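User: Hi! I'm a student and our assignment asks us to look at how structure tokens line up with a sequence. Could you show me two examples?

Assistant: Happy to help. In each example below, the sequence comes first and the structure tokens follow. Example one:
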Amino acid sequence: MERTYRTLLQWSIEHLTQAGVEQPGTDAQALLEEVVASSSEKAPPPLEREVDPNHGHRFRNWVERRAAREPLHYILGHRKFWSLDFKVTPDVLIPRPETEVLISHFLELKKNFPGQTSFRILDMCTGSGVIAIVAALEVPQSQVIAVDISNDSLAVAQENAKKHGVARKIRFLKRDLFDATHREDLGPFDFILSNPPYIRVDRIEGLMPEIKDHEPRRTFDGGSDGLNFYHAIIPDAVRLLKKGGYVIVETGFGVHGPVCSLIRETRAFTDPVMVSDFNHYPRVVSARKK
């Protein structure tokens, strides 16, 4: 049994390395810091100090969960996004830094409405609510509606909205994008934002275990061509956007080109714009309604 925090940390890094975890050192340090932070300690203990039995038991349990390839942020129960802390559970997709590109692009396009301070914004497939919540924080006078098919996801999103003080600014609704009988004319909107499921079925088996075995499949399975949700979102954008309003969607591997084609086929938008992420990969597509 490891006696000091240093030897405990060394064991955890070796164990996570053997399990194939991508960043064993970073993950082990994050788990240890969370264990200590959740106790009465106000600062991480010196590495040469003898391990508190409560810390050791909980930390080893978390390391074993991570070694089984459970996502780090499900174990921690939260994730940073836009420099804010959001609750995450196995009911929602873990927010990724790439989605911040969508937020940045939205804030840039907002400048095309000089003098306008209030916007109507729809977030489709809201999940943990990060897009809707950041939009409500960055544009305080806006009216935001966030929809998702899952009650469990909506509960997490509502908790996050309350945590960040925007619960009264966002209306959360359960909606199935593919069920026309349950659609409600919620528009018109200035912006429709979405990070929908976009992974092609034939690529799912090749995903990391953290994703394919732990995150909800409904949050990333985009169907045979990855376009299932765009076939619902884009026609809705035609119907729900104001003239001059924008649809902004996140895309993934092999999807950005077909999404642009779907937008062009409507003849309702200006030519779509693609925005790359920090890895120079096309990540976001936007278009303005004519």
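Example two works the same way, sequence first and then tokens:
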Amino acid sequence: MDKRLIMVLLGALIILPLLAGFTVGGDDNIVTIGKDVTLEANSFVTNNVVVIGGSATIRGQVQENVVAVFGNIYLEQGAVVRGDAVAVFGSVIRQGDSQVYGESVSVDIGSLNWRDLRFSGVTRPFQGAWRGSGSIWGVLWVVLLGLIVMWVAPRAVEGVASAATTDPVKAILYGLLSYVALVPLTIVMVISLLGIPLIPFFWLAVAVGRLVGQVALGLVAGRYILRQASSGGHNQAAAAAIGLLALGVITLIPVAGGFASLFYSLLGFGAVVWSRFGRRPVSPVAASQRGTVVVEEGNTNV
């Protein structure tokens, strides 16, 4: 295995679990990833509460905004939010005399349970890699979504698949750096006056990008499976569906499935970022020439 790939994966295994337990708390701001947050009664936060991959339960007062991404905001009896309450892929649920001085915004898509679609990469970006991911129903949902993506944007999926196979190490590195950047970017949008309305669109783009990346990997895996089976002609949709199903089943395996899910997520999302949603061609020349020996008359260069 490529030494660079080993180093990047080891770095991911160190950094992402740390992000999954990341919490910055205090009277000024509360920012957490992968955990729920509860602000008790008589507590006061002078700025913002930001939760990524978890829910926020507010019983006290928040001077500015409360934002939850891939989670709900529960405003219980006596809660006061003097700014906005924004739940992306979740809901703002108010009880009793809770107050929101700004706007209450819930950005969700129908009754689809996004938390079950762990393999698709559209939920809980920083969930732990130590258990199997999701359920068979989640895998089947991903296959269905993959077919829709292949129908809507086949060229984008092809471009992302090309990037993932051209240089997997570089794609994984892009994925790791992109995940790390999501947190400060979200915080900047929360604390800026114009950023709050952009948060739903930003995370929707992330969710779509992660899904496109998973579909692209499914396409690559499906083509490999069909070649090994000596199958005749096949179309993109069939290959993507078979590959997504196979990869999804792997993610259901405890421990091994968690590692596989982490690998797929980094590689797929990184390929999306690197290729700009498949719009920028990734040349295989640099990757194919890496490590080659060029011999000229009278000279040998490595």
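Here is something you could point out in your write-up. The chain has two domains: 23-107, 114-288.
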